[in-house]
Specification:
Elements lengths: L8 E8 L6 H11 L3 E13 L2 E7 L2 H12 L6 E4 L5 H11 L6 E3 L16 H9 L5 E2 L3 H8 L6 H12 L5 E5 L8 E5 L4 E5 L11 H14 L4 H17 L23
Parallel strand pairs: 1-2, 1-4, 4-5, 5-6, 6-7
Antiparallel strand pairs: 2-3, 7-8, 8-9
Helix pairs in contact: 1-7, 2-3, 3-4, 5-6, 7-8
Length: 269
Amino acid sequence: MGGSVTPPCVLTIAGSDSCGGAGIQADLKTMQALGVHGMSVVCAVTAQNSVGVQNFWELPPEAVRAQLESVLSDIPVQAIKTGMLASSAIVREVAEVLADVRAPLVIDPVAVSKHGHSLLMPGAGDTMRESLLPLATVVTPNLDEAEQLTGIKAADEDAMLAVARAIKERGPRWVLVKGGHLAGDPVDVLFDGNRTWRFAGERIETPHTHGTGCTLASAIASHLALGADVPDAVARAREYVTGAIRAGYPLGAGIGPVDHAWRSRGHPG
């Protein structure tokens, strides 16, 4: 028998991206790159490519629950990340199971694809607000997702903090509002109910940004599993995603993916 040490284990609960740039595929690539063991619970299957999402099909809620219970009954997890959950029934099943799990939970409240296609069935967003957000260690909405969660449209950094406060009232321990959709260099705001952290970045001029949200949330979960606290996990995750965006490459006729393997390829990042 070998003497290898098992790395920290991180579970993603999300949808499959058939072109490999986002979703479960991006999550597992990120986890591998950051040195944790990635595991997956598939909630939905998408038909998508670089130009858009043509369709998606949610799995039966009992299939999602069975995957969750199978993994959690056997393998200790050091962090969990959720992405595309598709339907209210799936959100309820996931929330019911995760209510008894102590591992840090990173929620990426995926609602719309990079191409503007809805990835949630009607009512699923309401169910997420009510049953899943209170369980979150960190929730990571972009500005559109934050508006769907709160009804508040953020047009500047001050408004981002107001949105973060409104989401915090839903129960998560930390809220990271991503400001990449605003003009100028991107700024993300992290809020714990008392303190605010401001993470400034640079605007990288590239169309190839498919999978950035999934990658960031998975990187945060990975660093939490490796022992970082939340502000440090966010900072490290943003550094990794920045390098992945800078190394993003064309794929097909539309938006290419970020490069999850940029470090191993020797890209300067």
